[in-house]
Here is the input.
Amino acid sequence: MDVELRQLRCLVAIVDEGSFTDAAIALGVSQAAVSRTLASLERALGVRLLRRTSREVTPTATGLRVLAQARRVLGEVDDLVREATSGHTRLRIGYAWSALGRHTPAFQRGWAEAHPETDLHLVRVNSATAGLAEGACDLAVLRRPLEDRRFDSAIVGLERRLCALATDDLLARRRSVRLADLAGRTLLIDRRTGTTTPELWPPDARPETEETHDVDDWLTLISTGRYVGVTAEATAHQYPRPGIVYRPVRDAEPIAVRLAWWRDDAHPATQSVIELLTTLYRAG
Here is the structure.
């Protein structure tokens, strides 16, 4: 059984216009073509969809159910076409934990001024590709190397590593900490999207670890004082939290901020985003 979009459009047009004649005008076809198309849809479905009298055309009970589904299907098809053909007018940038930190407002304002024709949307998706693999975004901000060969990426800036501590932690009294200061603590990490793993420490001085998978849970647990966390500087700007302080880890390597995209389907605005982000990060 094959049901075609033209058949569904015909059914909707008949009901919306109120007659076969007006439906034919709306669709730009003959009245006979409308009658044939409806008849072919009823044969394909094996049900009667419309009651036709000399005065009016009304859906049957089954016709009402089919009509509702037809509207939904046609709406989804319109969305599909719009998504495929208007991609240049919308730009979705995904991120897992933090977007661009303190550069986020400047990036949003700068983009709106330089590219008013392309709407920018920041989308938080807690996955390894920040929504890129899932189709939730066109570009993704990542802070860990991307080994999947389906994607390309470019480094747009560097961020310091910060230690997140409970405000009453003894280390919170310091202006900065070292990796060795954290070796005897329990480190809370997100192996799927996080930027820090025990491998940041020497093999003989690695902290114990516990896992979490959401930045809000991460912060809540750290605020209890039972855990510490190490994260990118952007997290501190995006998630200031009562009960949490951030201190630089002065002997840890900085984190590379990457912009990633599909290798075979890059958004037309990709290079413009790279240039703007690179400028913002270089300005400090």
About this structure: The first helix runs from residue 5 to 17. The radius of gyration is 28 Å. The CA atoms of residues 18 and 201 lie 74 Å apart.
